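USER:
Make up one protein:

ASSISTANT:
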Amino acid sequence: MSKNSRAKFFAALTIFSLTGQIAWVVENMYFNVFIYKMFHASAEQISMMVSASAVAATVTTLLIGALSDKLGKRKVFICGGYVLWGISILAFCLVRQDVIGVLFPMAASAAAVGITLTIVLDCVMTFFGSSANDACFNAWLTDVTDDSNRGTAEGINAMMPLVAILAVFGGFMSFDLNQSESWTTIFFIIGIAVILIGILGIFLIKDPKIKTAENQNYFKNIFYGFRPTIIREHKGLYLCLIGFAIFGISIQIFMPYLILYYTVTLQMENYVFIMAPAIILAAVFTALWGRVYDKIGFKKSVIPSLALLGAGYLLLFFFRGTATVFLGSLLMMCGYLSGMAVFGAVIRDQTPENRSGMFQGLRIVGQVLIPGIIGPIIGSAVLKNAETIVNDDGTTSFVPNQNIFLAALGVAILLGFYLIPLFLSMRKKEK
């Protein structure tokens, strides 16, 4: 890779990864706050939205990933997908109580309609986002990296969720999230930004050379990664995906409720100022940890990540003071993102060449579908009897409690036990 090509690659990686993650932050964290603040959604309704989005992401990635492999094209799906993704985000500007009242005058409850519309539009947005990002951007990233730089690239890619959180929280910290006008502005800004990045990609992204078989059967390719013969042939990949799924379940138990925990439970009005240093430090740590993976491999790099995650959970469960919440959040974020980096890198390492698009759907099953369904269900069950507060309009809302971190810790411990047979299988492969 020439110096110019290398610079162009890392520019594309940084810009598209960051923009994609900003859009995902709005969906995965801010939508939860949106329907909680605007429509007083329950924990069960938030869980339903997360699960529906996870299913949409998985089905989309399976379909579009296989299609991009068959056509041997990534760029058109990435750039076109980002433009449509941005347009779908703009549609949320219309999800307001006053607009709903005009469009659905016979509805018994504007709040119920608002929650339903949010869930439906979330799935539409996920279709375009997963086509562009989950299926094709991630396949492109696998195509253009190798085992000499994959950990470094994945470290940058994995740090972007926290950088995106910092950008979103910092950029919109002055907005009153109890006002619908604030949400309209947020959706407008994010939507336009995603559209512009999609257009920029036309000049920045170069399609890799992908060998395609002349008589590929598209529908067979969709389920390529689920064939028993393929599973037996790439056993290590599937074992790592199971571990990644367990890791994701732990994260998804608390993540849909994290902002609500800070703002509603802990009453941290200026939590952005407290969390910003933790986010920056965790992002830097993750970028460096990707290089560590390149040097020492998966087995030695995943254990410290899991230890940091568990330590963060413990602090967040036992303490509520500002300093300890900061430290717990820092450790949790370091463990979360570095764990994402090492799992993401080892999965890319074991993905067959010229089949990366087909395997993106399989990756999403482990990274999104299973965690996105099981994690929120566990979180919702933990919060079933949570304390409630009365809103100004007389409705009630639940108050997330620290038990979500204890449940997440339990799943992280389960992952620790799972690593034993995973490591043994890797040792057998090395012999």
